[in-house]
Amino acid sequence: MIDCKALEPEIVTLRALEAPPSPWRANREARLITDNAQRLLCQDDRVVPVEYVDRGDVLRYDAGHCLWCLIDSTDDRLRLRVLRCRGALALDLQVGVDDRLVDQLHKQRRIKEPTAEAARAWLEDELLLAPTIGLAGTRALARADNTGTRLTLVGRRHEADLRERDGRWIIVRLAPARQHDSELTLLHGALAIVDASTAAVLRSPAQRQQFQEYLDAHGDYVELWRRYAAIEWGQATEAGRTLSVLRYQDREPCGEEQLRWRYAVDPEQARAFMERWEALARDSKLPDLAIEACAEPPAWMLNAEQTKGIDSGRPVVGERPVLRDGWLILSYDPNREHEAPPPSGLLCLSIHGQRKAHERRQQALERIRSSANPMPQLRLLLEGQPVPTRTDWRLEKALSRQARAAFHGEPTDMQTRALDLALNTPDIAVIIGPPGTGKTQVISALQRRLAEVYPDPRSIQYQLLITSFQHDAVDNAMGRIEVFGLPGLRVGGRRRDAESPDNDRLSGWREARLAELAPRLDAAIAAEPVFAALRGLRDATTRLRIQPLTPGERAELAREIDARLQDLAETHRLRPTAATEQRWRDWLAARPPEPAIASTRGPTRRLWRQAIWSLRTSTSAFADDGAAQCLRLLDLADRRDQDLPDGDCTSLEALAMTPVPSDRQLADLAALRERLLTASRPDLRPPVLRNVLDTEGCRLLDILLGELDAHLKRRPEWARLAIIGDYLDDLRLDPTRIEQAVRAYTTVLGATCQQAAAEPMRGLLSLDPKDGISFDTVVIDEAARATPLDLLIPMAMGRRRIVLVGDHRQLPHLLDPDTEKSLEEAGELTQAETKALEDSLFERLVLRLRRLEEEHPGQPKRVVMLDTQFRMHPVLGDFVSRTFYEAVGEPAIRSGRSATDFGHPMPELEGRVCAWIDVPAHSRDDRDRRLPAGSRIRAAEAERAACEASRILDACPDLSLGVITFYAAQRDLILEHMGDHSLAERHEGRWRVRPEWARDERGAERLLVGTVDAFQGKEFDIVLLSIVRTDSPLRGEDRGLALTRKYGFLRVPNRMNVAMSRQRRLLIAIGDIALARAPETAEAAPGLAAFLDLCERAHGRVL
């Protein structure tokens, strides 16, 4: 209360008539009570009779209602300040805190977290007074206007103007308190600051009931995916029960090149276990099958429904089981740390990863379902329902100088609009980014603008999350991030490095900063002679510190340092303090010369030490020849020019003349002998240690250089260069410190959807297991490819905004057909629920948010599509636009670069951008065929693809090449044929591109062979597309099914879009041209027919 502006400035003094039972608390409220002409001052448990020192105060203060604040007390004198009120009014009042006020308090740094709860707590402390005796309830000071429609609460340092809105008083203005002439009214009763934010409205019982009625009528999207997740987890546990367990009695490590453990098992049980394992490996769709060793059965094996909260830690997981001579051998990943398995126990299927993923999904679904996530309107938006939005939102400018620098040139209108929408969205923004439209640049610019507009720069650490469902997508997005000159921090990673941050990327950033800044700084420093003079001084002091120098060399170097200091002072007016300079010279002058005794060598040293040892220090020994030994030492010192202090010479001469010395003289002689022996002991340290500068000298040099550096940085003409120079020195010489600084101050974190909720993230954010993870902004790249179960994990963390970036016209998420079938069997799915499973969450939001814009004019725009591509030749860009976007009603995609930017030297295809290499199917052996596992191959096409790849790489050594196919078996066959051209090799039982061909000297991908799934988000100069399918007659009465049998993946426009949009300069299809010319191709695979048509025109060629 002492800070309250309404307190009168005058001091009122009271005299205590009794001593209090405990000391008074200064600067705290007290209460003055008048009872039968007796005045009592009350504070907590202290009640003391008092009287006014100034009798005039009786008339001024006894008549009204006053609040008192005790300033201090001395003996029996109490000094107080008073706040006079018009009177007390009993009133029950709830004061609402809305989103606008929360933002204001956060921007003013009144609260650390921009939440209504933090704002409510701060306002309670600021505006409300604690209850007191005689007045019921909480108290507050108020002032009302004449109309009765405006009420102002006066707090300690602020005052809040209230307005009645929808039956509730809301704080419409919070400002510093001012002095007013009008008296205040003391309110008391059920006074409370309550949450009136959008979140509170959405969490209200009425809103929940209304929304539940909608879900009952139209279906519950979150509940649908909760059921899907439960079935998926049930299938994983069922697979574990099917494999069952294999008990072992002992285990021991084995293997030299790779870590292995072998387990002693029962041979019969082990054979049955291996049969079940092989069947599981053949039929199960679980990823990365592995076996774990544990002491007891895991909880999921006992009861699949009671695993939550049970965590036995990370299991010991092995792979590739082999049964040999009564031992079951498991191999272990050498890139991960492994604890030793239990001495005895059991082996079972490891579904630890599936369990963690399931728990994270369930937690996210539950937070969204119960509106416990930081953005409670998320669930309504998932259902396409309108949500209350703020009308007082301050719109930030989309572009700044730093944001513009994130683009390769001037941003397009739609890129600017996308940035504006993402920056100013009240909740969700969806950015559709067709191939090559610069969505990653938009993400980078957005991160820079978010950092610039964040209310409190001191608390922006780790507030922005960039995530995606795949590591490559996260790495690609994080590679462009640089906010305030710092890169983002990658949390987690692939399994081989999931426990450590992305050190390689931080090292790359550090080297890039050096390459960028060092040349410019070196040139600027070269133009300033003072830096060269300082560098010479530092070099001289470094030599003085560490070089082995003789006394003469040290003196010469000291004179050089003095000369350099003098030059800095006279030429550049740069010098240390006079005291420091004098201390250095005094220290150097006082440094003693090298002891002559210690410098003796050979026979001289031996004779000298023998003479010292021969000194007699006991009474009986001295009586024998003690005087003679003293004379011998004196004579040797004189003849050998040994430096013996005068005091020691006097003592020896006196002893030589004393027949029977006293005990004190003998004790002094013993001390002298010990001191001389120590001084004559040879120094066996190497010269680099023996002749270095001592600690005091090093400390003086540090002070001297530090003062010069501080003086330099105070000079405006040199300060900037000096600071940047220190920064570059750290980049060069102290990478660990630089990387620690990046981790401490970076604003952006990157992680996959799953790892965003993993333990490394919690550890970095210093959160307890029960705490929910939240970020101011969550940006999800390649959002159309993530399953809703994974996508909802980071979406449940978004507090201020969620930005989804992707393209629902490219690859969608993939679901397990068996899980969908089980879900159908568990309960009938409505048509809407079936559609909800098929569509990506990204596409769902695109459609529903667009509909919200159309049907509810008050709803903000949340969806934008980038419309200019920069990746490929304009002819190819127009082809992709017409075929995969305009054909389905999306806007046209323009080309932002000239055709002259996309030339290539490929023989036979000069000036062309597309081609079809015909591999006809003349015989049955030439046709594609289906393998037992379901994949397809076409041998003739694979062989031709390998030959063409070799020809392209030879003809275009500076260009990159991607070889795409729709089937994994065809990919492997192409790689096998590439082995004949020395482009591929066998590695750990599989074919891969040889390392020397995989990347160029800059580290960029040069050759990649893979399925369509491996290519989304990538681009290459030239792309070879292996079609695989060949022409055949339609069979069956169901035309749709017949077309699917004939064309397969070629019927899926999303896959065709990705396959035909990875190239920059040239796209070449290899396959049976008869298939593309078949009459039904335009219906079944319009992209294939359209591409052949393009090849047969002026910009293409058929070979």
From TrEMBL:
UniProt xrefs under Pfam families: AAA_11, AAA_12
Signal peptide positions (record): none
GO molecular function: helicase activity
Domain of life: Bacteria
DNA2/NAM7 helicase helicase domain: residues covered: 413-577, 738-812
Residue ranges of every copy of the DNA2/NAM7 helicase-like C-terminal domain listed in the record: 837-1072
The protein's name in its UniProt record: AAA+ ATPase domain-containing protein
